[in-house]
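Design review, sub-item: ligand-bound model
Attendees: FS, YL, KQ
YL presented the inputs for the zinc ion complex:
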Amino acid sequence: MGSVDASETTVTGWAARDATGHLSPYRYTLRKTGPEDVVLKVKYCGICHTDVHQVKNDLGASKYPMVPGHEVVGEVVEVGPEVSKFRAGDVVGVGVIVGCCRDCRPCKANVEQYCNKKIWSYNDVYTDGKPTQGGFASAMVVDQKFVVKIPAGLAPEQAAPLLCAGVTVYSPLKHFGLMTPGLRGGILGLGGVGHMGVKVAKSMGHHVTVISSSNKKRAEAMDDLGADAYLVSSDTDQMAAAADSLDYIIDTVPAKHPLEPYLALLKMDGKLVLMGVIAEPLSFVSPMVMLGRKTITGSFIGSMDETEEVLQFCVDKGLTSQIEVVKMDYVNQAFERLERNDVRYRFVVDVGGSNIEDAA
Ligand SMILES: NC(=O)C1=CN([C@@H]2O[C@H](COP(=O)(O)OP(=O)(O)OC[C@H]3O[C@@H](n4cnc5c(N)ncnc54)[C@H](OP(=O)(O)O)[C@@H]3O)[C@@H](O)[C@H]2O)C=CC1
Ligand SMILES: O=C/C=C/c1ccc(O)c(O)c1
Ligand SMILES: [Zn+2]
Ligand SMILES: [Zn+2]
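KQ shared the predicted structure:
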């Protein structure tokens, strides 16, 4: 952490200044530690494709300077006087949201990620009027409600991708009643979210089919991740042979794509769960859902409760994420490689072990 004045701490994060998305060191202040706040020194932060969408303004709502990063693992260095869940020295995680209204139906049902007044961990404005900034930074201040303990048995760098990618697949499987052993699931797009989808679904006892844009990941998917089957989406013979075979598909593709080839893979009552953030309309003809009573739905990360659950699920099942750990001075190359589909399967930045004052 940086210098401390009477009220605010100055920290360094790596920020994008414009839609080129190039990150470089940026100094800003953290708010004074409030009664329910946890101050954490960042150790590791995963790179999610949403970070690419955000720094490049793919959704048209990006504000700069923007320090991305929402798969954050750190060590607690200070807590406010009303913090009961954490103490200095704890290893903790922070994900996609850091605030909610606590009063609406989603908040009262403990699915605060669906609160219309949620506060994103970056590219948003906090209750004090300051911009929120994410985890590619030396430290963060976060309300204890949005902090989870990393359980013993999970390495901190391994835990980082679980805070977004992991809970993002766990939540819909749980919510839509898709945790039953023996189900046949499809994972469309084998990236950061998709590879956790394979691992989590396999651990639930599912038969898992990866549906990929190429043959490049076939051996890894089957041998390393434990997938049961592998389809190349452009191979019409393979796709036809697999028609009417899946109970659900988790669709993680981050770009516009046709839905009909995937709807055809679903059995009657099958569910297509959209995960990718795509700012263009997707289309399908209605018989593709009517003839088979199929559902197209979506899901957004997971609740704080589910985040705690997925962390424990991974400990209990012995699951880890498959990651490439890099230093902060490699972050721009890592973003570029992620964008061109060249990572197996998640970059995690060793923020604590980097000299983050130096630009690449
Ligand atoms: N709903 C939610 O709560 C969340 C949404 N997201 C969103 O999910 C999406 C995936 O995120 P993440 O897993 O981090 O991204 P990755 O880039 O790691 O993975 C996406 C995968 O999709 C496939 N893919 C990539 N580009 C294309 C394309 N143009 N056409 C077809 N397939 C493509 C590739 O798999 P293959 O090589 O197998 O084809 C790639 O590995 C993003 O849009 C992200 O913003 C992320 C987290 C939470
Ligand atoms: O990576 C996590 C965030 C996902 C996300 C989903 C939907 C949306 O509109 C976003 O801006 C982000
Ligand atoms: Zn994410
Ligand atoms: Zn709310």
